């Protein structure tokens, strides 16, 4: 899938991995709607984008993925401004084992909520052009992080949702591919604030740090390049792409 002129929506676009995904999609010719609840960071990124790419390639929309109303409005504005939606990157996420219901609401329910509302614009069954959805899960969507059981559960949920939606799309004819991105540890605010967010599992902070030291840390641009692969390679549907500092590979699941 060539990206020239394609229209992308990225959630959690203002910082971290979402910011890098946004920059990579822009560099490859897409127009991007940046959805985030951090208005200060979102507007600042827009200023940079406008200087680099000129006006009209990107649009910042203040949107909390917990709000159906705000998501609907953001998708409508994107479709009106750019002329549809071809690519969705469900990337917004938090790690907080204290406010664990919020973690579920953003990381898992948020992905489902944005996906269903975006499909109204993207699915060929409802007048869309088809396209591709990439969900940022995590390697914790494949294996357990002992210090973050709820975060782990949400990411396993995202991988399962992505694979089931890929099958539903193929069988029903949405014309939309679905893939999950599963990075190991990435240098962002989420990782640097980790120790204060573990709640009742704070005693496991040290063993988690040992795991981080052992696995190493990715930079956001490596992760964004993997998103580009999942977006552009039209053979990929229902995949979970594992991304490590030393390389990447597609997860093989047991066939049932
Ligand atoms: N940093 C890491 O080591 C890894 C992160 N991930 C996942 O990558 C995704 C992005 O995380 P990072 O860039 O590391 O985090 P980050 O904290 O650097 O950035 C997250 C962005 O999402 C936005 N956001 C948070 N809640 C939101 C909401 N309710 N609605 C809209 N926007 C919201 C924030 O304002 C921020 O701009 C998350 O889903 C995370 O679970 C996956 C694997 C590793
Ligand atoms: C705890 C920080 C979480 C940062 C964000 C994230 O999603 C990173 C995940 C990276 C890798 C974890 C994946 C699987 C766990 C593999 C082995 C688990 C060993 C058990 C343990 O000590 O936790």
Automatic annotation (TrEMBL):
Its EC number is 1.1.1.141, 1.1.1.232. InterPro entries: NAD(P)-bd_dom_sf, Sc_DH/Rdtase_CS, SDR_fam. Keywords: Fatty acid metabolism, Lipid metabolism, Oxidoreductase, Prostaglandin metabolism. PROSITE patterns: ADH_SHORT. It is an enzyme of class 1 (oxidoreductase). GO terms for biological process: prostaglandin metabolic process. It catalyses: (11R)-hydroxy-(5Z,8Z,12E,14Z)-eicosatetraenoate + NAD(+) = 11-oxo-(5Z,8Z,12E,14Z)-eicosatetraenoate + NADH + H(+); prostaglandin E1 + NAD(+) = 15-oxoprostaglandin E1 + NADH + H(+); resolvin D1 + NAD(+) = 17-oxoresolvin D1 + NADH + H(+); prostaglandin A1 + NAD(+) = 15-oxo-prostaglandin A1 + NADH + H(+). It comes from the Eukaryota. Transmembrane segments: none annotated. GO terms for molecular function: 15-hydroxyicosatetraenoate dehydrogenase activity; 15-hydroxyprostaglandin dehydrogenase (NAD+) activity. GO terms for cellular component: cytoplasm. Catalyzes the NAD-dependent dehydrogenation (oxidation) of a broad array of hydroxylated polyunsaturated fatty acids (mainly eicosanoids and docosanoids, including prostaglandins, lipoxins and resolvins), yielding their corresponding keto (oxo) metabolites. Decreases the levels of the pro-proliferative prostaglandins such as prostaglandin E2 (whose activity is increased in cancer because of an increase in the expression of cyclooxygenase 2) and generates oxo-fatty acid products that can profoundly influence cell function by abrogating pro-inflammatory cytokine expression. PANTHER family: 15-HYDROXYPROSTAGLANDIN DEHYDROGENASE [NAD(+)]. Belongs to the short-chain dehydrogenases/reductases (SDR) family. This is 15-hydroxyprostaglandin dehydrogenase [NAD(+)]. The gene is LOC108893942.
